[in-house]
Amino acid sequence: MSKVLLDIRNERLSFFTPAGEVKAINDVSFSMNEGDVLGIVGESGSGKSVTAYSIMGLNAEPGRLIGGEIHFNGHRIDQMSERELRKIRGNEVSIIFQDPMTSLNPVYTIGNQIVEVLRLHTHLNRKEQKARAIELLRLVGISEPEKRLKQYPHEFSGGMRQRIMIAIALACEPKLLIADEPTTALDVTIQAQILELMIELKNKIGMSIIMITHDLGIVSTICEKIAVMYAGKIVEYGTVDEIFYETAHEYTKGLLRSIPKLTEKQHEKLVPIDGTPVDMLNPPAGCPFASRCSSCMKICLSQMPEYTHLSDTHYSACWLLQKKELTKGEEEENRG
Amino acid sequence: MSKFILKRLGFAVLTLAIVITMTFFLMYLIPGGPFLSEKAPTQATLDALNAKYGLDQPVYIQFKNYVVKLFEGDFGMSLKQRGRTVNDIISTKFPVSAQVGGLSIIVAVLVGIPIGSYAALHRGKFWDRFFNVLSTTGIAFPSFVMATVLIVLFSVYMKIFPSYGLEAPINYVLPVLSLAVYPMAYISRLMRSSMLDVLGQDYMRTARAKGVSQFRILFKHALRNAVLPVITYLGPLIAYTLTGSFVVEQIFTIPGLGKEFIKSIMNRDYPLVMGTTIFLAAFVILMNFIVDIVYKIVDPRIKLN
Ligand SMILES: Nc1ncnc2c1ncn2[C@@H]1O[C@H](COP(=O)(O)OP(=O)(O)OP(=O)(O)O)[C@@H](O)[C@H]1O
Ligand code: SF4
Ligand SMILES: [Mg+2]
């Protein structure tokens, strides 16, 4: 039995903006075992990034964690001070961002930026740090690493910079790597190379990965489990097969319908579903998807559905499932 | 690098040549002459004086003579300050202006950069708005108004700081302050906006995600990027401030180059006008060159060419 690495329970996080409270994460729970690869999908603004960043205690102003527990690798992230969190960031949990072109500091050499994280979290001396930096560059497939260390970010292409970001993220061999749309800003051939590299490194190092993406192709190639987010909630969670072939939630169905053909080996972008996303300042009382759902019922408007567990790994929050469960229960009762 | 220096040197020579030529001929278009001031001299004395300084010759001959002397590094004799060479005047007056100006720039930078950064880090809060009002005022006030206000306040009423001369360190306070206020206000605004820009950059988020402390994020990752626009501004600022401000030197009775320059124009002291103009131009060019080099050191993306 593998160990639980990450366990988020009833997390709530809001941005207290001048216009009001934006409930970016509204009662989110999920857990991950060591070595898991979890995909988080959902449309823009659904809270994917905010959820992922909160695992390292990184909340952008004016965001505040207002409830729930985040257990990670034996720590209580939600109760740790900034000082304690700094020891974990870049060390036990690392992140790579969407845009490699702007994620590196333009005025420092990449050697400097790799060594920075080693200096923070390891006891290596200068010589060992340099050796480790060279080793890391080689690991992510950058040739002539000795020479490259002395170069500045602008001397690298986008794909190369994302490799460097990965090298920085892996420098201290983290337990968890968060990849926030790591290939969105890159062109297609480079995308494939970066993904290949990530899978290869995952197998070599054996870390867990959270992959945030819009790209269902990526999800199906690299992930084992998928969390579908909508309006700050996880509306469906399951293995890749369960999400793709036993789709439970109406929103997930919409997502999958918006791809022309799943069987085609193409990386398809999610096309937004009809209707506008929820106004996060004034979220509805019931199911957040109600205003766009073609199966919407009366109860959907007034009450948030509970999770229905469809298997050990598969659950979803939708009244249709609750109804099915109920009728199934009644049938069984009638039979008995 | 060496190619860049050569190219810049070429441009410098060209610029200086244009400045010298233009100034020389424009100067002669200004009505009046050096010997026509208070008591009108007789025609005979005037002819004699003109002959002595070569002003009786055609302008182009005068120009040729001037340029030849210039190549020997000789700016000629002052027409009004009997017996003093222009070289001598510049070399005694410039250090005075440079000292006052240099101090004011140091003050402006040392105050402006922290204030701008602080305001950016506390955007919208009390101190940000407070400094905003202060810097707007600082920019709106011309230096002579500032100088007058400072004198009235600190010399006349409080009698803390002297209002003229440069005998003791305490004499420097008011002139340095009146020169520093504008650049200080300008630098703090520049710094605030560039710091805000930098704070929103993705690489700042990367630094946080690496576990870098708030202190190092600010001083290592943000400051060096945010200070770039200030460096650009510093080039011309240093050039103009070190060479002296006429107004401030006049108000505080400081024997500096700025005052000398204006006086020389009023007096039609042709060699002194030429000398100071050429010196100013060369200094501006030099400062811009230095700024380019410094900029390149701070921001590796810049290509020198
Ligand atoms: N700094 C902030 N201030 C105010 N609101 C914010 C801030 N950052 C995020 N939000 C809000 O939190 C919600 C979730 O944002 P998040 O960035 O997690 O979305 P996302 O799912 O990652 O979207 P995308 O696919 O566009 O990256 C959004 O409604 C957004 O408006
Ligand atoms: S709960 Fe109701 S509105 Fe929400 S997805 Fe299910 S059917 Fe649609
Ligand atoms: Mg995002």
Structure commentary:
The complex is a heterodimer of chains A (336) and B (305). By secondary structure, chain A is an alpha/beta fold. Chain A has 13 helices and twelve strands. Chain A has helices at residues 48-54, 82-88, 100-103, 110-121, 126-139, 145-148, 158-170, 188-205, 216-222, 240-245, 250-257, 298-302, 319-335; strands at residues 4-17, 20-33, 37-41, 63-72, 75-76, 93-96, 176-180, 208-212, 225-230, 233-239, 307-309, 315-317. In chain A, the strands form two sheets. In chain A, strands 6-7-8-3-9-10-12-11 form an eight-stranded mixed sheet, with helices on both faces. In chain A, helix 5 packs across helix 7 (158-170) and helix 7 (158-170) runs parallel beside helix 8. The radius of gyration of chain A is 21 Å and the shape is elongated. By secondary structure, chain B is mainly α. Chain B is 74% helix and 0% strand. Chain B has 13 helices and no strands. In chain B, helix 4 runs antiparallel to helix 5, helix 4 packs parallel to helix 13 and helix 6 (143-157) crosses helix 7. The radius of gyration of chain B is 24 Å and the shape is flat. The mean pLDDT of chain B is 90. The interface between A and B is medium-sized, with 29 and 21 residues. The complex binds adenosine-5'-triphosphate, iron/sulfur cluster and magnesium ion (MG). Magnesium ion (MG) binds at residues 48-49, 180 of chain A.
